[in-house]
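Technical note accompanying the year-one report. For the benefit of new consortium partners, we illustrate the data format agreed upon in the data management plan: each record pairs a sequence with a structure-token string. No post-processing was applied to the example shown here.
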Amino acid sequence: MSTGATNDTQMVIITGMSGAGKTVAIQSLEDLGFFCVDNLPPTLLPKFLELMKESGNKMNKVALVMDLRGREFFDSLFKALDDLAETSWVSPKILFLDADDATLVRRYKETRRSHPLAQSVSPLEGIKLERELLEELQGRAQLIYNTSELKPRELREKILTEFSSNKKSIFTVNVMSFGFKYGLPIDADLVFDVRFLPNPHYIEHMRPKTGLDNEVSSYVLKWNETHKFLEKVTDLLSFMLPHYKREGKSQLVIAIGCTGGQHRSVALAEHLGRFFENDYKTCVSHRDIERRKEKTK
């Protein structure tokens, strides 16, 4: 009987010193499409492997954080890792995050969090004890990142570079049309108001159509004001997008708004999506394009 799991199943086990960047690591892998579990007790690893088998290829990229928050289970971790190494259908990789003692102490002071092993002693004593406990695990790691001199963005870039199978799709440009009469989209990073452009709504035979129709799109795009707007906005975005990507942002939502989200914003969102699709993974959506139909039902 086939398990449905393939031998190219990826599993990344994230571990290391508390305060060394495990949260950034798990979030970065999640952005790459990994199924992520934070603080999985090692004793549950065999059950988790069974779940992966039953899912077939739905869980072929998995990232698990295992650290001293589950220290009552920690002794079983090495046995779990030995069993995992003998599994033929999964390729485990241990990512160990480290930082020097002074950096870890500073980070704990900045966040005002207590070290998991230093409830009644100083953070430095807890860090030294944790380092001793993790020494053997560090020796088993395939990847060791020292984050003492790394900003969160730089750590994210290292992880994306290491684990991305399609580097072009790391950064996604989402272009959305919307109608101001229905409110601003709460997830927009950049908003452009195109209500200054000539409105097809006032041309009777175009009113029931949308910016997806060639006639409406041609009308919106024929004006000098539109050409000037697109020239300026594409120049601005062409400058900004590489900087957003370099900063470690996984996606950017660009919202184009007109009055009702039917005509002008739709046509321009489609145009911008086509403009950037050769350089970025691009998705175009139209939040309010069906609103008018809903009101007439």
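Partners are asked to follow this layout when depositing records. Residues 171 and 242 are 9 Å apart (CA to CA).
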